[in-house]
Every structure is written in C-alpha cells, then in structure tokens.
C-alpha cells in the first residue's frame, strides 16, 4: 500500500521545498553568494548556509531565526512575504509538526523581543480561499 499524501515524510519534503524557495528568491534578487545572502538576511554566514541548505531533519526554520530575518533593514519584500507564508503554513500544520511543537513555534514567533506576528483568521474554505495575510507589528 502507498502512504497517503499527508504522511509525515511527504510533509517534511514539502517543508524542505519551501525552504529551498528562499534560496531561489535571494538569487533572483541578485544575492548569489552566501556572504551576500547572510548580510541581507541579517544572519551569520554559517547560519545562512545551514538555513539555505534546506536539509532540515524535522524542525524547519526556528521562530527566533525568522524574527532575526524580519529585523534586517535590507530584507527584500519577496523574502518578507516568504517568511509570512512559511509561518502561516507551519502554524496550519502543513509540515507535519505535533501540536506541542507548534505551540512552541507560535510562542517563538509571537513573543519575546516585542515583535508579534499576528495571524488574521477568518472563517473560510481552505480549499478555495488563499490564506489570510500575516502582519508584523513592532510593539517597542
């Protein structure tokens, strides 16, 4: 028997593919070297290399890394949009994380340094309606 399309391994492949999109977005924006990518993302070279390798066993991108990226002054709009999509998809369970792990991730992206990622939820049919936008507010 074949595994159903929502199997954990399939979800992890989706997550790796989503993270690989980030590298493509950066390259299309003209940031080809790891050094250039690190500067624009506001991360160290080693963190950027590990992130863009997209060979994450299970956890994906942490909330703390995502918030560091969002604080980068030169972050391209396409990368910012990618972050919003990734957070929304991960919190919706698209990548197969357990509820307990999603609670931790939600706390990472919502709390801490004053940055809050607000998910605007509406009653909608997920099959026909795109996800609601995610907005960032800085409560400093």
What does this structure look like?
- This protein has one domain.
- 52% of the residues lie in helices and 7% in strands.
- The chain is built from six helices and two strands, in the order ααααααββ.
- The protein has helices spanning 8-28, 34-41, 45-53, 63-70, 77-91, 99-110, and strands at residues 115-119, 134-138.
- A two-stranded antiparallel sheet has the order 1-2.
- Helix 1 runs antiparallel to helix 5 (77-91), helix 2 crosses helix 3 and helix 4 runs parallel beside helix 6.
- The radius of gyration is 15 Å and the shape is globular.
- The N and C termini lie far apart (54 Å).
- Residues 1-5 and 118-135 have low confidence and may be disordered.
Short summary:
The protein has 140 residues and is mainly α. The protein has one domain (8-138). It has six helices and two strands.
List the helices and strands and how they pair.
Blueprint: H1 8-28, H2 34-41, H3 45-53, H4 63-70, H5 77-91, H6 99-110, E1 115-119, E2 134-138
Antiparallel strand pairs: 1-2
Helix pairs in contact: 1-5, 2-3, 4-6
- The number of helical runs is 6
What are the low-pLDDT stretches, counting only 5+ consecutive residues below 50?
1-5, 118-135
How many strand units? 2
Could you tell me how far the N terminus lies from the C terminus, measured between alpha carbons in angstroms? 54 Å
Residue-averaged pLDDT: 76
Q: Biggest sheet, open or closed, and with what strands and sense?
A: 2 strands, antiparallel
Percent range for β-strand residues = 5-15%
Class from helix and strand fractions: mainly alpha
Shape: globular
- Arrangement of strands in the largest sheet: 1-2
Helicity level: 40-55%
Question: Cα-atom Rg, whole angstroms?
Answer: 15 Å
Total of domains? 1
Order of helices and strands: HHHHHHEE
């Amino acid at each position: 028997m074949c595994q159903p399309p929502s199997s954990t391994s399939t979800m992890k492949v989706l997550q790796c593919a989503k993270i690989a999109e980030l590298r493509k977005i950066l390259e299309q924006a003209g940031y080809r070297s790891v050094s250039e990518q690190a500067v624009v993302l506001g991360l160290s070279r080693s963190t950027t290399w590990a992130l863009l390798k997209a060979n994450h066993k299970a956890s994906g991108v942490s909330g703390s890394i995502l918030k560091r990226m969002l604080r980068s002054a030169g972050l391209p709009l396409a990368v910012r949009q990618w972050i919003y999509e990734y957070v929304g998809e991960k919190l919706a369970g698209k990548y197969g994380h357990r509820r307990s792990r999603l609670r931790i991730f939600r706390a990472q992206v919502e709390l801490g340094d004053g940055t809050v990622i607000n998910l605007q939820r509406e009653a909608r049919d997920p099959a026909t309606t795109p996800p609601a936008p995610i907005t960032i507010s800085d409560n400093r």
